[in-house]
């Protein structure tokens, strides 16, 4: 089900839209390999009719599958918009398009959700990236390797001297 508000229903009472919007309907393309949208958008919205348009208020939640930009660990980022509000004029230049007495809220939700996407997803605050200890160890290991080579070469030379 897309996020449709039927204006006829709204004539008589407020509308509450609660449910999950499938990934396909939300149709978000983050243009970013480190963020994927695989779960539906959960929404709980109230729609009121004002004199000049609609007022939509409520809660949005979307789980994002992210990859940490520093340590590459996959993790889930929960995007919560707790007091989301949107005013949709029904008249004038910027008015919301009405099709068969219905207004589709999806584009407005999509836009605001995209604004909340993390720019540089981190698995945790202050992630320091790939563990330094392992990098250090491998460096040390190669270092000792060279040292050993070196010492054995010296040993060879020493043998020649003798
Ligand atoms: Zn990380």
Assembly form of the protein: single chain
Kindly report the average pLDDT value: 86
SSE arrangement, N to C: EHEHEEEEEEHH
Q: What is the strand content?
A: 35-45%
Whole-angstrom Rg:
28 Å
The separation of the N and C termini measures: 89 Å
Please characterize this protein's 3D structure.
The protein is of the alpha+beta class and about 160 residues long. It starts with a strand and ends with a helix. Mean pLDDT is about 85; it is low at about 135-145. The strands form two sheets. Strands 2, 3, 4, 5 and 6 form a five-stranded antiparallel sheet that branches. It has a three-stranded antiparallel sheet with strand order 1-8-7. It is built from four helices and eight strands, in the order E-H-E-H-E-E-E-E-E-E-H-H. The protein has helices at about 5-10, 25, 105-115, 130-160; strands spanning about 5, 15-20, 35, 40-50, 55-65, 75-90, 100, 100-105. About 30% of the residues lie in helices and about 35% in strands. It is rod-shaped. The structure holds zinc ion (ZN). Zinc ion (ZN) binds near residues 68, 71, 73 and 122.
What tags apply to this protein structure?
162 residues, alpha+beta, 36% strand, 5-stranded antiparallel beta sheet, 4 helices, 3-stranded antiparallel beta sheet, 31% helix, binds zinc ion
Question: What's the layout of helices and strands?
Answer:
Elements (H helix, E strand, L loop, with lengths): L3 E3 H6 L2 E7 L1 H4 L8 E3 L3 E9 L3 E15 L6 E16 L8 E2 L2 E3 L1 H10 L16 H30 L1
This protein binds zinc ion (ZN).
Please summarize what this structure is.
With about 160 residues, the chain is an alpha+beta fold. It has helices at about 5-10, 25, 105-115, 130-160; strands spanning about 5, 15-20, 35, 40-50, 55-65, 75-90, 100, 100-105.
């Amino acid at each position: 089900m897309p996020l449709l508000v039927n204006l006829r229903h709204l004539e008589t009472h407020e509308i509450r839209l609660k449910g999950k919007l499938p990934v396909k309907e939300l149709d978000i393309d983050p243009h970013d390999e480190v963020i994927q949208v695989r779960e539906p958008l959960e929404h709980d919205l109230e729609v009121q009719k004002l004199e000049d348009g609609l007022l939509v208020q409520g809660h949005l939640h979307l789980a994002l599958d992210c990859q940490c930009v520093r340590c590459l660990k996959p993790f889930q980022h929960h995007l919560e918009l707790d007091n989301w509000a949107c005013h949709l004029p029904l008249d004038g230049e910027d008015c919301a398009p009405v099709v068969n007495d219905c207004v589709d809220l999806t584009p407005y939700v999509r836009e605001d959700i995209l604004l909340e996407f993390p720019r540089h997803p981190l698995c945790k605050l202050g992630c320091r990236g790939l563990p330094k200890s392992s990098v250090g160890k491998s460096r040390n290991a190669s270092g000792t390797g060279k040292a050993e080579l070196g010492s054995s070469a010296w040993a060879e030379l020493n043998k020649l001297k003798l």
